[in-house]
Amino acid sequence: MPELPEVETVRRGLARWSLNSTINAVQVLHHRATNPRSVAPLDVVAGASIAEISRRGKFLWFDLDRPYALVAHLGMSGQFRIQPVGAPDEKHLRARLLLDGHQELRFIDQRTFGWLAVSANEGPVPQLVSAIAPDIFDPLFDRSAVINKYRKKETEIKRALLDQNLMSGVGNIYADESLWRAKIHPQSRCDELSPRKIENLLAAAEIVMSKALVEGGTSFDSLYINVNGESGYFAHSLEAYGRENEPCSRCATHIRRIVFGGRSSHFCPKCQRL
DNA sequence: CGTTGCGCCTGTTAGC
DNA sequence: TGCTAACAGGCGCAAC
Length: 274
Description:
By secondary structure, this protein is an alpha+beta fold. The chain has helices at 4-18, 143-152, 157-162, 172-182, 195-214, and strands at 23-28, 50-56, 59-64, 68-73, 78-84, 93-99, 103-109, 115-120, 256-260, 263-267.
């Protein structure tokens, strides 16, 4: 499940292998690979060269030598792979970009929640990304303003953490990890948390995602890999997510899993009290 | 307007 | 053993 550290790992791989390349052709192999909000069919980027590869939260995009960008979201299972021309097609290959130098940039996506799109790129971020809040590593991230936004929310803190309009990049894994680290129960009401607690939570999110980035992200299976096909190693470092009935590393109480808001939350019932 | 729930997908696993 | 149901869950939109 690609969240900020995984998407950033992919972005760095893409930058290393495709920066300054020209996109010679685009081939779309599945109708869901194109986001319906794309302003044009994907093959309009043919002939463009890749000037920069950028990211906000879980969205990434190719800045082109044109007034529009090629935006990508990996969804649940999206992958980019750099492959030599002629390599056998992957089972869930959804689109391929032919680059100069006999390389292909392939978009592979089992569950088809991921997509590509062409979007106007004349502001700070492409139009398609403009509604997404800056992530915690963005120079535009305003920590005190974001703390105030969380404090005004009339919902549980876990839900708010997943809201990409407040702060982007955090998904279910890093939400649970951040809450564990900050010792906050996922069902705590936002408007009952002190500014200090929320500040601690943001600091925890920043630390957890920084550590994950160093490890190349979290891989449970082959659904998340980087552009070289390599897995990340942060799964070994998870303290709460996916550890139901295993002992908390701080107090040995068994981690509990509950479901609310349609998703699983993992937490230590002793360290993270309501 | 803010919050909540649903639908979109497919491969794996748990349970009967 | 073989089938069905549950599960994974980011995002956009509809509904309340």
